[in-house]
Structures are given as structure tokens and as C-alpha cells.
Amino acid sequence: MNTKIEMVDEKNLNEDTIEEAAKIIREGGLVAFPTETVYGLGANALDPGAVKKIFQAKGRPQDNPLIVHIWDIKQIETLAHDVPDIAYKFMERFWPGPMTVILPKSSIIPDITSASLPSVGIRMPSNVIARELIKKSGVPIAAPSANISGRPSPTDVERCIEDLDGKVDFILGGEMCQVGVESTVIDCTVTPTCVLRPGGITLEMLREIDGEVYIDPAVMKKPDKNIKPKAPGMKYRHYAPKAPVKIVCGDLKKTIEKINEMVQNYIDENKLVGIIATDETKNFYNKGLVMSLGSRNNMPSISKNLFETLRSFDDKNVDIILSEAFEEKGIGVAIMNRLSKSAGFDITRV
Ligand code: TXA
Ligand code: MG
């Protein structure tokens, strides 16, 4: 397939380019586009044939439901039913933005979109290109992250092209994604509301609306084959670069010591080691390839850079990646969730 790639300036939208992409969506094609979280791979959510192409392009398991993206809160009425008041409170507060709400689905959502579940995940993104694309296409857009299944989600257009060139009709390019990890998924079909995937809308923020909100305990655990996860996507090894990832967790000084010791052992085995550090710690590593995610005082920068850093270690063909850990507070919960999954929960405590 020939993929058309066009850049769009977020501050000065090229309406014709977005209309061209919207037409492809209307006609049943695939368009990759930026959102504030990660790039998405979109198709008309109401067209089973178009949605099927998403699964094929990504190599995605059919039992993993897609998020349906809207641009106007009124679209909820046609896509879901029995929407609880609390769901409206979350939507009014955090939309447009990095939050997906699971609701009982209406019959117009094809089974392939929701992987035959009785519910559907709906999100209103804030990125202007995404919003304009959804609006112009005139249909809700089903979009998983725009990566090949299992790889870290793309947070800039180059990574999106790397994974999807030749597999989709159109790639709309924008700026680097601001949040850098996928949306917070909240289940509003249960009481109290349960967080199925942590993201940019943090537990602390959700609790300002409802103090009872809790994080599904499965989020921070290694998937158990005997327990059926509430978000089917949670059971897959995710966000994984080619090299194995190992996390060292605990007191920062001891973490640095432990990582340096591990680095030396790998070097003795002739291995190329990547180290995921922070601005505060990077100078304490003098062997291996060191990359900083940013300052520990600026956790959003850490989440913004996480996937890009994992992917750039792939480019450098490292044999192993060692990472520091982060406090599971605010967006730190999402960061540690993605990092732990990319490491297959290989965590050394010091
Ligand atoms: O930020 C995001 O959410 C990005 C951008 C493109 O919007 N999209 C995204 O989609 O991350 P995806 O497909 O990579 O992840 C969707 C997650 C999966 O873990 C899936 O299992 C869960 O949401 N999910 C979707 N519908 C669900 C439902 N009805 N019930 C439970 N979990 C659901
Ligand atoms: Mg994904």
C-alpha cells in the first residue's frame, strides 16, 4: 500500500490536508494521527470492514477492544446507553483530554470494535489535529495506539512512520505527543469507578470528583494466566523494545550502585547496555549508553520521553536496558505501569 504522509502545523491547521484524511476515514480507509497521548491508528468505528483493517495493520489480537474517539460530548448518546451521572462528571471535568470512559455500548457499535464486549471505551482527545479529523470525518474514529502490536507506542511522527509506512493510507504528522503515555482508562460500568489503565489523568485528579475511585489491583501485577483481566489489553506483554528491560527500584543511591554493578557484569559478558536515568542521576553512570528521561522534579517530562527513549535504545541495538524506578504517585503510576510491563515485571528491589 502506498502511504501518504503529510505534516500539519498545530497552530495553523491546514484544513485541506485534514479534509483529505477525513475523506479516507469516511471511505473505510486507515489514517494515523497525533493525539496528546500517543499517535493513533484510526478508522470509522461504525464500519466493521474498516475496523478489521486496523487489526490487520497492527497485528493486534481480535479480543482486544478499541477506543472510540469523538469530538463532541453529545456523541455519547448514540454510542452508549445508561450513562451514569458520575461518568458525565468525569467527562465534563477531564474532556477533551487523556481519559477513556468505559460505558455500556449501544447497538450501533460493531462487535469487532468492542471485541464483542457489552461495553465500549470512549475518549475525546484534546489534540487539535485529532479533533479536527474526527469532526471533519463525521463519524466516531476507532483508534488504538499507532504501533505494531507489542512495541512501545509512537509519540512522534517518525516512529509512527517506522511502524506503519506501507500499512495505512495516510499518516498525519504533528508535534511530539505531550503526555507520552496512553489515556487513563476508567470503567464507569461498575461502582465505584475503577481505573483499568493509569495515564495522564491521575488517581488524585479523579478522586477530586469521586473519592471512592480506585485502581484495579491487576494494574501493578504481573498478568496471571488464570485471572481474566478487565481490560483485555492488560494481559499482553506491552510497550516492549527489542532488548529486555530490567528495573532497579528503591533508594536512589543504592539504585545507582546496583545499576553500576549490573552494567559491569554485562560489559564483562561483552554486552551493550542501555541505562535509563534522570537528569539528577545520569552523571553517576560512566559505562554503558546513558539516556535521561528528564528531571525527577518534572514527572510529565519523564512520561513524555519514556516510549521514545525505549525505542531509541532499539536503534542503538543494545542487548539489555536497565532502568531506574519512579515513585508511584500522580503520573508516576502510569510511568511505572508502562515501565514494569515493558520489563515483564523484572524488578530488582534494593
Ligand atoms: O491514549 C490512548 O488511549 C490511545 C490514543 C490513540 O487515543 N489509544 C490507545 O488504544 O491506547 P489501545 O488500543 O492501544 O489501548 C486501549 C486499551 C486496551 O488496554 C483495551 O483492552 C482497553 O483500552 N479497552 C478498550 N475498550 C475496552 C472495554 N470496553 N472494556 C475494557 N477495556 C477496554
Ligand atoms: Mg496500544
TrEMBL record:
L-threonine binds at residues 37, 69, 123, 143, 183. Required for the formation of a threonylcarbamoyl group on adenosine at position 37 (t(6)A37) in tRNAs that read codons beginning with adenine. The keyword Nucleotidyltransferase applies. ATP binds at residues 60, 64, 145, 153, 197, 239. PROSITE patterns: YRDC. It is an enzyme of class 2 (transferase). Its EC number is 2.7.7.87. Pfam families: Sua5_C, Sua5_yciO_yrdC. This is Threonylcarbamoyl-AMP synthase. GO terms for molecular function: ATP binding; double-stranded RNA binding; L-threonylcarbamoyladenylate synthase; tRNA binding. Residues 15-201 form the YrdC-like domain. It is found in: Cytoplasm. The lineage of its organism: Bacteria, Bacillati, Bacillota, Clostridia, Eubacteriales. GO terms for cellular component: cytoplasm.
